[in-house]
């Protein structure tokens, strides 16, 4: 089943010049790039994206981190994109991520974990709409 997923390289990955490394992994895996955009997010975009975390103790730090620099937004498309990308990315905490995953190879911590990837088809649709208005044709 062909799906779309929102993926973004977070400010730590951009600052550490990891864009080519991360994008290359998705290219080699055969994903189609429907959208690719480097930009600094607005506070409203961050709040909409992380709506389930607004109000939690850790959210102000997460928000400040995501607003600290540009992110590379991507809409990737491919067969079973959500599950395949989540496997490629690895668990949120870099210490739990296996070698060979993006976080296992490149992330420094749970807080600076390089990348975001949609966790379900419903999340992907909501997240893509937050940043681009609708699923990308």
Explain what you see.
This protein has 137 residues and is of the alpha+beta class. It has a single domain, classed as 2-Layer Sandwich (Alpha-Beta Plaits). The protein is 42% helix and 20% strand. The protein has helices at 11-15, 19-29, 43-49, 59-66, 81-89, 102-106, 121-132, and strands at 2-9, 32-39, 71-79, 115-117. Strands 2-3-1-4 form a 4-stranded antiparallel β-sheet, sandwiched between helices. The mean pLDDT is 95.
Key traits:
137 residues, alpha+beta, 4-stranded antiparallel sheet
Concise overview:
The chain has 137 residues and is α+β, with helices and mostly antiparallel strands.
Strand and helix layout:
Layout: E1 2-9, H1 11-15, H2 19-29, E2 32-39, H3 43-49, H4 59-66, E3 71-79, H5 81-89, H6 102-106, E4 115-117, H7 121-132
CATH C-level category: Alpha Beta
Give the full name of the CATH homologous superfamily: Nucleoside diphosphate kinase-like domain
Helix content: 40-55%
What is the domain tally? 1
Radius of gyration: 14 Å
CATH T-level fold name: Alpha-Beta Plaits
N- and C-termini, Cα separation: 16 Å
Major sheet strand order: 2-3-1-4
